[in-house]
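Box 3.1 A note on notation
Throughout this textbook, protein chains are presented in two layers. The first layer is the amino acid sequence; the second is a token string describing backbone geometry. Keep the layers aligned when reading.
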Amino acid sequence: MDYEKALEYVKLAEDQDPTYQSYYFRFDIQYHKNLALYLQKKDTKYIDIARNLISSIEEIQDIQTAKIFKQELNHLVDNPAYYKNNTDYDIVQIKEQN
């Protein structure tokens, strides 16, 4: 629950050379950045941004990733304490497309 540290890691990822970043990587970073900002600032605009990112992921037909992100987001919105004591997280496998 260290949102400052989470945002530091997001910043490190964002600062990577963009020529080595796929769209999946960028979606993933922006999604998690907005989750951390929502939890830190309690501003629902970050939830709206995360939902838009999920819609974009659905549009590119990565239904499994969108489903996992949607479930995670719903848990966080409905019950923010859900992840406090939970260690059984879904793992999202980001597939690189050639």
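The longest helix spans residues 23-41. The chain is about 65% helix and 0% strand.
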